[in-house]
Amino acid sequence: RQGVSLRLAFGDCSSGNPCKFTVATDSFNGFSGTLLRIDCWVGLDDTVPLNLPSGLLHLTFGGTGLMEIPKNLLRNLDTLQQITFRRHKINVITEDSLSTINKGLRVFEIGNGDLDSLQGKPFQRLSKLAGLILDGNKISDLSPGVFDGLGELQRVNLRENRLMKIRRYVFISEHIKLEQIDFSYNQIRDIESNAFSNLNLKALDLTGNKFTVFANHYLNNLKRLDVLMLRRCHQLVKIEPLAFEGIVGETWRITSNYALTELVGDTFNGLHLEKDLVLDDNNHLQKVRENAFRNLSVEVISIRGSAIEDKDISKWGLGPGVKVVF
Questions:
Q1: CA angle at residue 176 from 170 to 181, to 5 degrees?
Q2: Strand, helix or coil at 98?
Q3: Residue ranges matching CATH 3.80.10.10 in the chain
Q4: What are the residues facing 224 on neighbouring strands?
Q5: Bridge partners, residue 54, by sequence
Q6: Interval 243-249 mean pLDDT
Q7: Could you give the CA distance from residue 22 to residue 124 in angstroms, rounded to a whole number?
Q8: What pLDDT digit, counting tens, does each position of 54-100 carry?
Q9: 233-325: what CATH class?
Q10: Are the beta carbons of 286 and 258 closer than 8 angstroms?
């Protein structure tokens, strides 16, 4: 019962089948660890506190059959830094759902489950939150204000949900520390104007979404974006002119978009990359129109695996010293 971590599996973890199990309120007396993981437990009674160790830093529930976030269980955990729910059955998080969680929590993770709704401003009281991991759920919409109050937020992971649109005012000027947003493998077709206004991001992942046209207002007023991942968007046929104007970054990857057949004039006009622009494996990319790369600041453009017919790069509007790799 003494030690750094403890994992309790109340069921068959290989199959993920939970079973009912009763734990006495003094079961954790004497446990002085900082990490506790509870798997495959459906007999949890949230009316009875478990007297979990006050020095606990990371608490994980996996495959427990939880229908809602327990409240009494999480009381008095004043040192808790991260709480994780995986393989869960929680459908909704409201403004009351997290009311007993330590206000100093740094990471909240709930993934691979049934979550489909974030109501109101559910995370507002967790003002110290740096990481918000919501991957592998069924979330189809983010309402404006859903992340209000999170001035310390640095990372948001919404990978593999059902989002169809990114609305404005979801991310606001309050999120000045936000560095990474993962929207990969959703169903996103549209991004409202100014959705990322005034953010300074290190990484934005839009891989595997449903864009047909990447419009020139999707990233408008975004100040900095070190890494853009726009990959495997198999319905993407066009990137509009000036879609990236005024953005400063490092290395961008716009790759494996099989429906993309041409780059129009001024596609990358006004983009300033400190390293590389990678356009590899756009297998049906046949044409690069005149001045597609005009006013693009970059060291190397990699365009391997394309079907470009005319490779006369003198027409592309390249700046001096730019290296193109086919």
A1: 55
A2: coil
A3: 1-200, 233-325
A4: 200, 248
A5: none
A6: 97
A7: 34
A8: 788 999 988 877 888 988 888 888 899 999 999 899 999 999 999 99
A9: alpha beta
A10: no
**One-letter identity of residue 25:** T
Both tokens of 130, joined, read 């740096």
Look at the block and give the residue holding tokens 């975004």.
222
DSSP secondary structure of 285-325 = --EE-TTTTTT-B-SEEE-TT---S---GGGTTPPTT-EEE
Q: Can you read off the two tokens belonging to residue 48?
A: 């009875």
Residue 185 is encoded by which pair of tokens?
């493998």
Residue 15 CB partners (closer than 8 Å, separation 6+): none
Give the model's pLDDT for residue 36.
85
CA distance 252 to 258: 17
The HSE-up count of residue 256 (CA atoms within 13 Å, CB side) is 9
What long-range pairs does 74-77 form, CB within 8 A, spacing at least 24?
Answer: 74/100, 74/101, 74/102, 75/49, 75/100, 76/49, 77/52, 77/101, 77/102
Whether the CB-CB separation of 16 and 63 falls below 8 Å is answered with: yes
Domain spanning 1-200: CATH 3.80.10.10? yes
